[in-house]
């Protein structure tokens, strides 16, 4: 399998018609100035020098703002630079992120012309009341229309949704997931809401009209969504915002723009560790004997998710089920898969003590 690389190009707030209550694009992207075609060229060249593998799939990704809402001349200027790398066979494709209400046939034809293959829509919720509450200024009808157009023009469709939006419940978010699955996206991003400096949500938090999720609540909600999307064969490519100089733990970084909310530097690991823990416990409970010790086989990439953040899964198995777990690497296991073997049951433990 070819190694996949993303070259991120951030276009903060370019083309975006409004400020959502939770949004501060310059904080999220870490980008404080507008991007130019020369910036795109320099960024791509910088990343290409760092990629070592000969067999790789490389994609230029325009993140932030609403790419298809950018002035058409600037949009085309940025795409032309990216397309030059495709024609030179140094890059394989381009992806963009945008708003659902900034998609039409003319925009899609332009993206197709310049080698764009993937379009991600910032949906956030399919509940029109919650969208209004967050001042998104689009509706679920816009999402449905844009998604169908994107698929009709044979782009790969991606969706982005959020958990913990103002007045949104776990049921609302699961309903959003079911609504989006019907639109057949190939990829999904799940973002817990963080309260960022300079946003309207920060004012609501200070006034006591909005309370963010805890890390534990955000993990549980995100986990349930990951379970659902996995069943629908939709690839969740990110859970939680990427850590940057400004998206970080405020207690450890005075430059952090995160005021409150379920920030964790290893948020996805927390979610995947929780999924693995559920799998292990379910397997242990399926046996008709009291399990004392298990051996868990998994791929090298998945070991940390099985062990858990700071060995949390291992400790919880011991504390709540009195089970000792030994995690071992297996080269035969596919990434994300685990195999559990019972190596000792309670009667074995008793026999050992009798022989002492």
Detailed description of the structure:
- The protein is α/β, with parallel strands linked by helices.
- Helices cover 41% and strands 22% of the residues.
- It has 13 helices and 12 strands.
- The protein has helices spanning 25-29, 37-50, 72-87, 105-113, 128-133, 140-152, 170-181, 200-207, 215-231, 267-286, 303-307, 312-321, 346-355; strands at 3-10, 56-63, 93-98, 116-124, 156-163, 187-192, 195-196, 235-239, 258-260, 291-298, 324-329, 338-345.
- The strands form 3 sheets. Strands 1-2-3-4-5-6-8 form a 7-stranded parallel β-sheet. It has a 3-stranded mixed β-sheet with strand order 11-10-12.
- Helix 2 (37-50) packs parallel to helix 3 and helix 7 (170-181) runs parallel beside helix 9.
- The longest helix is centred in the last third of the chain and has 20 residues, at 267-286.
- The protein is globular.
- The termini are far apart.
- 39% of the residues are buried.
- The mean pLDDT is 91.
Query: Residue share in helices?
Result: 40-55%
| Relative strand content | 15-25%
**Strand pairing plus helix content: what structural class?**
alpha/beta
Number of strands: 12
Indicate the mean pLDDT.
91
Features:
22% strand, 356 residues, single chain, alpha/beta
Quick summary:
It is built from 13 helices and 12 strands.
How are the secondary structure elements laid out?
Elements: E1 3-10, H1 25-29, H2 37-50, E2 56-63, H3 72-87, E3 93-98, H4 105-113, E4 116-124, H5 128-133, H6 140-152, E5 156-163, H7 170-181, E6 187-192, E7 195-196, H8 200-207, H9 215-231, E8 235-239, E9 258-260, H10 267-286, E10 291-298, H11 303-307, H12 312-321, E11 324-329, E12 338-345, H13 346-355
Parallel strand pairs: 1-2, 2-3, 3-4, 4-5, 5-6, 6-8, 10-11
Antiparallel strand pairs: 7-9, 10-12
Helix pairs in contact: 2-3, 7-9, 9-10
């Amino acid at each position: 399998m070819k190694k996949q690389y993303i070259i991120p190009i951030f276009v903060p707030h370019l083309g975006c018609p409004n400020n959502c209550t939770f949004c501060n694009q310059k904080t999220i992207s870490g980008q404080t100035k507008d991007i130019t075609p020369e910036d795109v060229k320099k960024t791509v060249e910088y990343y290409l020098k760092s990629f070592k593998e000969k067999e790789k799939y490389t994609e230029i990704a325009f993140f932030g703002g609403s790419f298809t809402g950018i002035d058409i001349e600037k949009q085309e200027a940025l795409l032309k630079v990216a397309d030059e790398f495709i024609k030179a066979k140094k890059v394989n494709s381009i992806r963009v992120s945008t708003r659902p209400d900034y998609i039409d046939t003319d925009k899609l034809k332009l993206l197709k012309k310049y080698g764009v293959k993937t379009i991600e829509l910032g949906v956030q919720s399919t509940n029109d009341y919650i969208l209004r509450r967050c001042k998104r200024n689009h509706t679920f009808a816009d999402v449905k229309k844009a998604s169908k157009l994107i698929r009709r023009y044979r782009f790969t469709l991606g969706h982005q949704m959020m958990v913990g939006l103002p007045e949104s419940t776990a049921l609302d978010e699961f309903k959003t997931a079911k609504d989006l699955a019907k639109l057949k996206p190939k990829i999904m991003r799940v973002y817990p809401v963080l309260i960022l400096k300079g946003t309207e949500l920060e004012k609501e938090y200070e006034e006591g009209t909005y309370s963010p999720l805890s890390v534990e609540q955000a993990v549980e909600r995100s986990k349930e969504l990951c379970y659902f999307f996995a069943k629908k064969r939709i690839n969740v490519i990110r859970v939680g915002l990427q850590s940057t100089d400004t998206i970080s733990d405020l207690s450890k970084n005075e430059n952090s723009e995160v005021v409150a909310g379920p920030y964790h530097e290893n948020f996805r690991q927390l979610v995947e560790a929780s999924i693995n823990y559920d799998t292990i416990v379910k397997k242990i409970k399926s046996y008709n004997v009291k399990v004392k010790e298990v051996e868990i086989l998994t791929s090298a990439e998945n070991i940390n998710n099985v062990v858990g953040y700071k060995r949390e899964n291992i400790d919880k198995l011991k504390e709540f089920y009195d089970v000792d777990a030994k995690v071992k690497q297996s080269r035969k296991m596919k990434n994300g898969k685990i195999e559990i073997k019972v190596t000792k049951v309670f009667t074995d433990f008793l026999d050992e003590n009798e022989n002492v």
